[in-house]
Amino acid sequence: MTKLRYLAGCLLAFPLGALAAPALPASTAPAAPLTSYVDPMIGSINDGNVTVGPARPFGMIRPGPDYSRVANSGYVAAPEAPLYGFSQLHVSGTGGGAKYGNISVMPFSGPIEAIGHTALREREHAELGYYGVTLKGSGIHAELTAASKAAQYRFRFPRGAPMALELDAGRLLNQGTVPLQAEAQYLVGSEIEVVSATEVRGHSRARGGWNNGGPYTVYFYARFDQPIRAVRTWKSGKLDARARRQSDTGEDTGALLGFGAARGRPLQMKIAISFLSSAHARENLDAEAPGWRFDAMLGATRAAWNALLSRVELGAGATGAQRRMFYTGLYHSMLMPSDRTGENPLWHSGEPYYDDFYAIWDTYRSSHPLIMLIDPAREAAIVRALIDIQRHEGFLPDARSGNANGRTQGGSNADVIIADAYVKGLEGIDYEQALAAMLADADVVPGGNEEKEGRGGLADYNTLGYVSSRYVRAGTRTVEYSLDDFAIATVARGLGHTALAQRFARQAGNWKHLWRAVEDHGARGFIMPRRADGSWIDEIACSVPGAATRAYAPHDVDIGTCVCWWCGFLYEGSSWEYSLAVPHDVAGLIDAAGGPGPFRRRLDTFFDGGFYNVGNEPSFLTPNLYHWLGRPDLSSARVRAIVQRHYHDGPDGIPGNDDSGAMSSWLVFRMLGLYPNAGQPVYLITSPLVGESTLHLQQGSALHIVARGFGAGAPYIGAARLNGKPLARAWITHQELEGGGLLELDMVAAASGWGAGAPPPSMSP
């Protein structure tokens, strides 16, 4: 880590002298490998949408079962849902229209005379790096594991049963059949070829999906440990017993492969993918799966994960359920984005390449700050990849998959990721080039499709100081552009670009231009829609047929059923939520809301009145806003109640879409008792949900967090010490955290006033 030690000029400065660290307690971590606490099934139902198949950290291939043709992860738990096959690419935790599901493999037993085989599951089991299922009727037991670019399958057929596989290069998740069906994927073409008695190659070309992306191609190369004895290929559903290759003519292709009768040993398949060519897929196969040792690949995958998971240890007092929640949360936080370095088909570059930012609107608040702590070298590579994408395509992505930018949900939120890296001193990044990339977002009007990239409504924002009702999601965009401008000001100031810093610091207050002094449920002042002429909008004409025009109220969730998320004033939220989403200027927000007393009452109403949405990222920081009122005890109480009510270690243990690990990373930080304010080098302290934890940092230091007197009868922090010295404020800097040592929290039964005197930094004094 570099020693820039930069604190943004608009943050409060604190002396950060060297502190002598007392001796740390001996580690009390359990002897079991941490991977044993990861349960891939947590979040697999109730819209968690996590992928249950095996994966390496940030792996390019993510194979898994497809029990649904439309679910983002391919997984549904309903026992009546048939298995359609195992495809090689999935995203995890996302909502909206599905992406990927390419290259499907389905085992079956019988003659190779028909396509479209399915089967119900009898038993299934998932562990980190492993998925297994027994198919009802045939008794076939399928197992799979994965490396970074290759996967290995093991199919156990009953002795004497005919062994067969259906390999479909033309199937996709959420595959559209009607032109321009919203968020559907469309097959552009596919190809398959049986190249030898044990090898098959081919590719799948598709476009669309949630990000409405252009065409992308997934190449594959598969190898079997037993010879193929019978082949039938197909194109557009028509079987051919003679052709061993079906070339790409824009239609679906596939192959039925027969391997003879099972003789007591499993049929094994290795498959690798590439975004460059099938020849490159073969190179990936040879590099990552040189032999037929299924358990060796599984062991290597678990070792890779254990190396990351072990960077945070929980003390011996943590329960099994807490460990499963925590380490599964870490696991989910590091599945995406996908590391495709060396696999970029669009341009040649010496920079890292990452894809599947799905979406940064979801992940900039807690996922990327968590990666920063757990694996800073990885986060540096991700930031460099973002900058390289802008260098070649003109804009930083807010979301990206299938090698294509899109969609922007709110702001140009990669700006916050860059600022977070900068203020935390992340090395290896050209910050001048990063600033240039941020300025492209802020100054260049995206041509054509404003949902693809850049800032929609920028012409309004840069002239009026807000996005008017002429543009959709005007409220969301104005609020988030203000934060993004704060991020630009932070980096510009640190690099010595004073005029730029001043301009964007002014623009960071633009959220106030949509702040209207209306009242709702006892609170005064909300983000509300405004026309370009400056007049306010009082009524909304619903787009739902037959619905009447009605008054706009701050508690409406995106104006209820009147309009869709994408075409409303606010994206995925009400004005109650977005009017509290000003993380860079909480002091200014408190002032606009009428001062500390009204703001405290407003927060209480927000949580007690049902306006808080645990699954909505704009509300991630809101439980901590009591910190700026000198009441971190109330923040702790809110966090504890949210976790106890909405998170657990069952299949429905994530409250809504995990959103590429966003919900999981939020939980990880909350259990530690630290929460980042992204784009600032600050972590807010709340009562931890475990009694003891240790963060192993990358320079060999470690931060040991001990909650003394931890227990149900002592939910509040009464006093704190950092390396033996009293800590009166309820937050620490990244520099202090990085320095390691011992953070002691004395837990008490009643609020003591600790943390009241020094509120966290804010742009406004």
What does this 3D model show about the protein?
The model is unreliable at 1-30 (pLDDT under 50). Helix 5 (367-374) packs across helix 6 (376-393). The chain is an alpha+beta fold. A hairpin with a 5-residue loop joins strand 26 (674-676) and strand 27. It has two domains: 34-306, Distorted Sandwich (Beta-galactosidase, Chain A, domain 5); 312-695 and 699-708, alpha-1,2-mannosidases domains (Glycosyl hydrolase family fold, Up-down Bundle), CATH 1.20.1610. The strands form nine sheets. It has a nine-stranded antiparallel sheet. A six-stranded mixed sheet has the order 17-28-29-33-30-31. The protein is globular, with a radius of gyration of 26 Å. The protein is built from 17 helices and 33 strands.
Quick gist of this model?
With 765 residues, the chain is an alpha+beta fold. The protein is built from 17 helices and 33 strands.
Strand residue percentage: 15-25%
CATH-derived architecture of the largest domain: Up-down Bundle
Enter the CATH topology name of the largest domain: Glycosyl hydrolase family fold
Task: Enumerate the spans where pLDDT stays under 50 for 5 or more consecutive residues.
Answer: 1-30
Tell the overall outline. globular
Structural class computed from helices and strand pairing: alpha+beta
Tally the structural domains. Answer: 2
**CATH homologous group name of the largest domain:** alpha-1,2-mannosidases domains
Q: Major sheet: order of its strands?
A: 4-5-6-7-16-11-10-9-14
Radius of gyration: 26 Å
End-to-end separation: 30 Å
Put simply, the count of helices is 17
What does the main sheet amount to? Answer: 9 strands, antiparallel
**What is the CATH class of the largest domain?**
Mainly Alpha
Mean pLDDT across all residues, rounded?
93
Helical proportion, percent range: 10-25%
